[in-house]
Design brief:
about 350 residues; alpha/beta; globular; 8-stranded parallel β-sheet; TIM Barrel; single chain
């Protein structure tokens, strides 16, 4: 009987290792301590309107990626948050993974690690492969694509293909030190979906645990009245991630509340200048709190994120104050005082 119980215990232990478990606080703290202060931007090359245009073979542009990650390296950024897309994988699994590896080689050359985002509930609900739409004049993120889209995100008939995608990507790159973290679902419940997203959110965490990458997994808190989604995200993330485009005072209150989870934190989206959320008043606060800081975005381009979410400019002329982004396409900073501050904070001890 003793031998049988020992065998059962061993099998249970092996199963737990194979499937993965939520990290302990000690493991999370140790992981965070092994990294310098995590700073960077949400990145998409300026000549891509969305994730599909970034990752499809016909429009995957290593030259632009290399040049623009060079801008990031020049101001001391060490991390980029980058969105993948399941349709690009489905269309060309081998080629997609090859391009992901090529991206990682370029980022690594610039001393930049990557946070990859798996699913996303933001913006356009009907993604399609092939030639992507041109930007709509003066409109923020007019061509960004949800993943897997809607109603695809609530159709459980899609789960088999989505599970295969998640597990293949996380198994292929699950021990890759060029990857910092897996962000499993961006803003679950956005576009009015609410708790409709919860089943897929739960599934992607389950699939990720079964793939058992060595990197931590997370899904960022972003809408504070989504109680059920927030609870699941916070309780199942190895490292706590969140979004905040609020004023410094409101942001500090959010930080104080999130500290009660007693986990390392990364703010994976911030910086909206016209909402009084900018580098000067937010980045020093995040450094003081030892919270990772990933702003939106890096280079002004086809995503049109220099325009505010709810303030389109019909003429398409450059707004007086950019909403997001740090650089123009030629590498010139939008505001040199900002890039000077970013570089200073990234290089000082």
């Amino acid at each position: 009987m003793k031998k049988i119980l020992t065998l059962i215990a061993c099998i249970a232990s092996i199963t737990a290792i194979a499937q993965g478990q939520k990290w302990s606080k000690e493991k999370a703290d140790q992981w965070y301590a092994e990294h310098q202060w995590i700073t960077g931007a949400n990145f998409i090359p300026s000549n891509a309107i969305n994730q599909l245009e970034m990752w499809q073979e016909a429009t995957f542009d290593t030259e632009t990626i290399d040049r623009e990650l060079g801008y990031a390296e020049g101001i001391g950024f060490n991390t980029m948050r980058v969105y993948l897309h399941s349709l690009a994988y489905k269309a060309d699994k081998k080629g997609f993974k090859k391009r992901v590896d090529e991206y990682l080689k370029i980022a690594n050359k610039h001393h930049i690690q990557t946070i990859f985002v798996i699913f996303d509930d933001c913006w356009n609900k009907d993604p399609k492969m092939g030639v992507q739409p041109e930007p709509k004049t003066g409109i923020h993120n007019s061509g960004w694509a949800q993943d897997p889209g809607y109603p695809a995100s609530k159709d459980r008939a899609n789960d088999k293909e989505l599970e295969a995608y998640v597990k293949d990507v996380l198994t292929t790159f699950g021990k890759d030190e060029r990857i910092l973290l897996w962000d499993l679902y961006n803003e679950p419940g956005n576009n009015g979906k609410g708790n409709e997203t919860l089943p897929l959110l739960k599934n992607v965490f389950k699939w990720a645990r079964e793939a058992n990458p060595q990197q931590p997994i997370s899904a960022g808190l972003w809408k504070w009245d989504y109680q059920e989604l927030n609870t699941f995200q916070a309780q199942n993330s190895d490292i706590l991630t969140y979004h905040c485009y609020d004023t410094p005072e409101a942001h500090q209150r959010i930080i104080n509340l999130l500290k009660t989870h007693n986990l390392p934190m990364i703010c994976t989206e911030y910086m909206a200048r016209t909402r009084n959320n900018n580098f000067a008043n937010t980045l020093p606060m995040l450094k003081k709190e030892h919270i990772g800081a990933i702003n939106w975005g890096l280079v002004n381009g086809k995503t049109n994120t220099i325009f505010a979410w709810d303030t389109p400019i019909d003429s398409g002329e450059e707004p007086n104050v950019w909403f997001h982004d740090v650089f123009r396409k030629d590498g010139t900073p939008y505001r040199k005082d900002e890039t000077d501050l970013i570089k200073k904070l990234n290089t000082e001890k």
